[in-house]
Amino acid sequence: MTVRNGFWSATEVAKPSTLLPVSPALGVVMAVLALVATAVAAVGMLGYGPAVLRSGVRAVVQLGLVSVVIATITRSIPLTVAFVVLMYGVAARVAGRRITTGRAAWWAAVPIGVATAPVIVLLLATGLVPPRGITMIPIAGILIGGALTATTLAGRRAVDELTHRRGEVEAALSLGLTDREAALEICRPHAATALVPALDQTRTVGLVTLPGAFVGMLLGGASPVAAGAVQLFVLIALLAVEATAIVVTIELAARGRFSHPDTIAEAARPWWRPPSRHPPGAGSRT
Questions:
Q1: Do residues 162 and 183 lie in contact, with contact meaning Cβ atoms separated by under 8 Å?
Q2: Domain locations along the chain
Q3: Quick check: 255 and 180 in contact, CB under 8 A?
Q4: Helix ranges (DSSP H) in the chain
Q5: Keywords in UniProt for this one (predicted)?
Q6: From CA 143, how far away is CA 120, in angstroms rounded?
Q7: Using CA atoms, how far apart are residues 180 and 211, in angstroms rounded to an integer?
Q8: In angstroms, how far is CA 206 from the centroid of its own chain?
């Protein structure tokens, strides 16, 4: 099947259960909402006005391309794996750039990979998720997306805490804590709140929100019980993935992996302690 035929086949299948009609009116409403979001961000001086508009345009382009090729990708296991790896690479790059700059940003790939890979392998090994592109890509995308959000939030909060609370890090070091222990004492409480969005989503499901997986399955003709079971699985899996990603991210931040060479160690070094003569990472007390 060609890409064009695959696209139109997918479109025809989706017609009976379309939640929003794909029409010029939909495009106009989305454009208006994007402009409103951009204007509100600009008027409120949030600093993200242009970024909101760019993100909207980028989403249109990316989803358009995925809609065209997804039917072909899901019919090939090698292409499916390649697409999942691409999602992972993009997520690692985005999270890293949100946390820090330079080569240190690639450390964000560690928590995302450590959190998502075991869950995906477990699902495939137990047969809960069949090795087919149409099921692997959505599940992997949901898990990687959750890990991306958790890593970004935890990483930014941890690095900010260690940067702005240097005096408290010095005080912890003066009490005999190691560099890692002092950093964890300061950054962990605030960075751990990155798990709150996932907790709130799980606590309020069915009462405040009806998540996408549940609604999508209902529109696709699944029974409410089956849709609920899938959505429950997604929420519990996301809790496991995001909790793991946050723990690994905090550990990396405490060890200075998201900083330029020795930035955190030098910032935390008491004035009476001479600078370390070891290269970054060598002879560490962690």
A1: yes
A2: 1-73, 77-286
A3: yes
A4: 3-14, 24-43, 49-73, 77-99, 109-126, 133-164, 166-174, 179-191, 196-204, 212-219, 224-254, 263-268
A5: Membrane, Transmembrane, Transmembrane helix
A6: 8
A7: 39
A8: 23
Secondary structure of residue 70 in the 3-state scheme: helix
Q: What is the DSSP string of 105-158?
A: GGGGHHHHHHHHHHHHHHHHHHTSS-S-HHHHHHHHHHHHHHHHHHHHHHHHHH
d(CA 249, CA 183): 13
The pLDDT assigned to 18 comes to 52
According to DSSP, the residues that pair with 52 across neighbouring strands are none
Kindly state the greatest CA–CA separation across the chain.
Answer: 72
Hey, is 15 helix, strand or coil? helix
Task: Considering only CA atoms, give the Rg of the chain.
Answer: 22
Q: What is the pLDDT of residues 233-284, one digit of tens each?
A: 888 999 999 999 999 999 999 988 887 544 444 444 433 344 444 444 443 4
Q: Tokens standing for 184? A: 């964890």
Q: Six-digit token pair at 235? A: 């929420």
Cα distance between residue 138 and residue 212, in whole Å: 11
How many residues comprise the chain?
286
* Percent of the chain topping pLDDT 90: 33
